[in-house]
Amino acid sequence: MQTNMKQNLWGYIFIGPFIIGFLAFTIIPIIASFYFSFTSYDLFNAPRWIGLDNFKEMFTSDPRYLHSLKITFIYVFVGVPLRLIFALVVAMLLNTASRAVGLYRTLYYLPSLIGGSVAVAIMWRNIFGDDGIVNIALLSMGIDPVRWFGNPTAALWMLIFLSVWQFGSSMLIFLAGLKSIPQSYYEAASVDGASFFQKFFNITIPMLSPVILFNAIMQTIAAFMTFVPAFIISKGTGGPLDGTLLYSLYLFKQGFEFFHMGYASAMAWVMLIIIAILTSLIFLSSKYWVHYESEGGK
Amino acid sequence: MQPKNLKRLIYHVIVGGFAILLLYPVFWLVMSSFKLSERIFVTADQLIPDPFVFSNYAQGWEGFGDYGFGTFITNTAIFVVLVLIGHLISCSLIAFGFARLNFAGRNFWFAIMIMTLMLPYEVVMIPQYIIFAQLEWLNSLKPLVVPAYFGHPFFIFLLVQFIRTIPRELDEAAIIDGSNIFGIYYRIILPLIVPALATTAIFTFYWTWDNLLGPVLYLNSPSKYTVSMALNMFLSNETVSNWGAMFAMSVVSLVPVFIIFFIFQRYVVEGISTSGLKG
């Protein structure tokens, strides 16, 4: 009916905005950022080529960078698994026929809904204050109050708690996954006398594993790029003693506080490489634990 | 009590109790915003304000400098609406192209789009800033709004998936009736993808409303501040006495988020459950 030329023309008219935007806001900046990463550039003078010096500085003479990388890894590898475990446990609790489930689902989702906002970061900063409600709760349980802003480890935990608190969106995805597991599997297992844990490890986890994989990847990437809570909770400093200086925050400070644009670009590239490696590691590992059903069932 | 009822009771105590525990900080924030500012931390262990005052809201609403909080809300609303229009138009056009039109290079561009999904913003942040600086777009909404008119990979992907579920027979019938390609997009597909467009609109609203990094980078004069930046300013000016105002305006900033959620809950929950959109 239609000629190829016409088809192509229409196609490119429709996706044209994407291509233009991709060139202008993604590909040109990527190339520029790659170039800047080999330069010393302060935004006011022309970039000066310094080869690999930025990368060398990061790993050999910038302890703050290595520290920032380290606490970001802790933040990601403690926060994301905890968040997924909470999400899975709560999703399983909510995967019942109770009429109240709709309400509970909403309540558990609310922290995720508002969690990225400045308002919640301000709230978090204040509940963990010296006379905040967290310390009041600890005291009432007979535990010594913690000076959350007094030591870097406690401050990092405060950020991890904030991340775990927002397990709701993963929970919704798990809940949808749980609902798609045929009930007959569990019934058959019960007939064979399987215990709760046997059913959990032999039916639930394998059937849910593709969804777990998806969540693990998306949450790891997002966690690595966390910026707002660290920025607000430390009032932009990354303190105390760089305890909340997550990677994105340090990158932001290098770029827009110290105007080390070349160094910040190099940091962005290392971040991209780390994220790519993490994602592929999770993918590679998936063949050992992710179970794909051949006939339907997701 | 029958064992079955007891079991049910225990379930609700555990699941409901844990939900209340999780949301307690939010109740505390809301309630504290009605306490006298200097009493907030003295009475942090009590939830109910005594006395119950609105003065924090009055004080917070005055904003700072010459600009009231109303200005920041208006600024944010304009920002959100402009991005929203951009996303709805551009993402639906692009998604239609990918889902329905056969053109050379389609798979290539689709793969590129999926790759941009994974790209950290930090990688393009600095060069984008330099480009916008050279266009003399700094201290305006343009750097934050204009890119929205060129599509957003997350929403394009969402819409493509949705359009693929619509039977192609509808397109063919429209062609027989003499419709051109644009007519198929406008008259057939667009009305049918309203639910997915709603999801796009809702998440665009959330992400734009909460956006802090963009405004921090691009807006310098307080007259242009968004709500999230204004809250950040409250925080940097934090003195012993103005917690109340800061809490009150934090609550104000959350109200639209809650309202949108409770009106469109179904789209939010479905959007996350089916596409894994991070909420």
TrEMBL record, chain A:
GO annotation, cellular component aspect: plasma membrane
Q: How does it sit in the membrane?
A: Multi-pass membrane protein
Has keyword Cell inner membrane? no
Keywords in UniProt for this one? Answer: Cell membrane, Membrane, Transmembrane, Transmembrane helix, Transport
Q: Which InterPro entries match?
A: ABC_transporter_permease (IPR051393), MetI-like (IPR000515), MetI-like_sf (IPR035906)
Location of the protein in the cell: Cell membrane
> In what residue span(s) does the ABC transmembrane type-1 domain sit?
69-282
Any one GO BP annotation for this protein: transmembrane transport
Q: Where are its TM segments located? A: 12-38, 73-94, 106-124, 154-178, 211-233, 261-284
Quick check: keyword Transmembrane helix in the entry?
yes
**Which Pfam family is one of this chain's hits?**
BPD_transp_1
Per the record, the domain of life is: Bacteria
> What family is it from?
Belongs to the binding-protein-dependent transport system permease family.
State the name under which the record lists this protein: Carbohydrate ABC transporter membrane protein 1, CUT1 family
From TrEMBL, chain B:
Q: Where in the cell is it found?
A: Cell membrane
Pfam families of this UniProt entry?
BPD_transp_1
Q: Name one GO cellular component term.
A: plasma membrane
Q: Which residues form the ABC transmembrane type-1 domain?
A: 73-264
Highest rank taxon of the organism: Bacteria
Gene3D superfamilies for this protein: MetI-like (1.10.3720.10)
- The main location is membrane
Keyword field contains Iron: no
Q: How does it sit in the membrane?
A: Multi-pass membrane protein
GO biological process, any: transmembrane transport
> Which keywords, in A-to-Z order, does the entry hold?
Cell membrane, Membrane, Transmembrane, Transmembrane helix, Transport
Q: Write out the transmembrane intervals.
A: 9-31, 72-96, 108-132, 144-163, 184-209, 243-264
Per the record, the similarity remark reads: Belongs to the binding-protein-dependent transport system permease family.
Q: What is this protein called?
A: Carbohydrate ABC transporter membrane protein 2, CUT1 family
Question: What is the native source organism of this protein?
Answer: Gracilibacillus kekensis
